[in-house]
UniProtKB/TrEMBL annotation:
Pfam families: CsbD. It comes from Methylobacterium hispanicum. Residues 4-40 form the CsbD-like domain. This is CsbD-like domain-containing protein. Residues 28-42 have a biased composition (Basic and acidic residues). The lineage of its organism: Bacteria, Pseudomonadati, Pseudomonadota, Alphaproteobacteria, Hyphomicrobiales. Transmembrane segments: none annotated.
Length: 52
């Protein structure tokens, strides 16, 4: 369960960093790739069992 959260958070973070770098250097392709990576990252807490 913890690995899923960490993985999702790491993917979101990588996407955010990639998007920021794209904006900083003016590379629209890298910026779009970062946005796509954030969007495709699994939701945080996916697979967590609630109510137990």
């Amino acid at each position: 369960m913890t690995d899923d959260k960490t993985s999702a958070s790491a993917e979101q973070l990588k996407g955010s960093v990639k998007e920021a770098i794209g904006k900083l250097i003016g590379d629209a392709r890298v910026e779009a790739e970062g946005r796509r990576q954030k969007r495709e990252a699994p939701p945080r807490g996916a697979g967590a069992v609630r109510g137990r």
